[in-house]
Amino acid sequence: MSETLGTLEELPQEYRDEMTKAGVAPLWPMMRNVLPHDKPDAVSKSHLWKYDTVRPLLMQAGELTPVEKAERRVLVLSDPGRGNGAMQATASLYAGLQLLLPGETAPAHKHTPSAARIIVEGKGAYTVVEGEKLPMSEGDLILTPGGTWHDHGHEGDEAVVWLDVLDLPLFYYLEGSYAVEAEIQAQRNRPDASQVEYRAAGIVPARRRQNVISKFPMMRFPWDRTKAALQELAAYGGGDAVEVDFVNPETGESPLPVMGFTALMIRPGETVKPPLRSSSAVFHIISGSGRTVMNGEVMDWNAKDTFSVPVFAKMEHSAGDEPAFLIYAHDIPLQEKLGYYEERTR
Ligand code: 1HN
Fold first, then answer.
1. Strand 115-121, strand 141-144: pairing
2. CB within 8 A of 14, min separation 6: which ones?
3. In this structure, what are the phi and psi dihedrals at residue 220, rounded to the nearest 5 degrees?
4. What is the pTM of this model?
5. Does ligand 1 come within 6 angstroms of the Cβ of 168?
6. Model confidence pLDDT, tens digit, residues 286-325
7. Separation of 168 CA from ligand 1 center, angstroms?
8. What is the Cβ-side half-sphere exposure of residue 69, based on CA atoms within 13 angstroms?
9. CB 142 within 8 A of CB 165
10. I need a labelling partner for 144 at 20 to 30 A (CA). Which of 49, 238, 246, 298 fits?
11. What does the DSSP 8-state code read for residue 81?
12. Who's near 199: CB < 8 A, 6+ residues apart?
């Protein structure tokens, strides 16, 4: 292994000019930039977005910009490592806070990236995915897989805010990101699959030969079930961190191809120390308050705050006097498909 590689400056100017003219460049001065030793150099920087700070700006957007002028009225959570306006929170994850006001609709479209929504506040809004009406309640996780039609509506009487997380940066990088627009969808007159086919864990509709199981059978994960599952695990599970993964109930696999979702309960007095992971993540606090020390930096968070986690971040989470409940989106399913997902002990 060579310790120091040759630099561009060491090369004669005339040779460098000839290379530029020929449209080529030497690899060796740039080799370590693209292949650093031992672990990647993260461009992304972690950040905590306080809901108290962002909420007033989002409500102002509600006054300044009618939904018809925005299509999706969103404030994007920009990675400080890439600068304000960056359309991503980490290398692979886009995140933004979306506001829908009573009576508003956001028109139907479908796009190549997948989206997930975590409901932050308010009642009465819903999203329709492929004709299935998915009601939104605080803490629910709702999926919009890539290529599925979706529109949003609001039958309630208070502002509704949710956190969107998309695998958009990856699709954009692949030059594969685009959308198709349409009219609002007709809604099937029945409850969503979490209330019908997948009403209870471990029970699925009988597998008859003619059944065609959807690739995305369950697109809404109601928060009350997730919270109850965490509380029972906390009471009777082992000594590990109290965490549950959201899965496709038909396969047990991650419910989307790129993004995975995990809910975490932190008990008062406990310090959760996850391994260093090759994945990046966006954490959202559903309820409670607490602290995350990330690469030595202290982040004090409250309910409805959101923070980003770059690759191989060293973290310690603790809660205040009440248990804290969080959901995080990550890119572990993608990294597993690519064969490089890794956890390192601390
Ligand atoms: C999108 O389609 C939604 O459907 C929200 O609500 C945020 C950010 C980038 C690209 C598409 C939505 C989005 C988005």
1. antiparallel
2. none
3. -135, 130
4. 0.96
5. yes
6. 999 999 999 999 999 999 999 999 999 999 999 999 999 9
7. 9
8. 6
9. no
10. 49
11. T
12. none
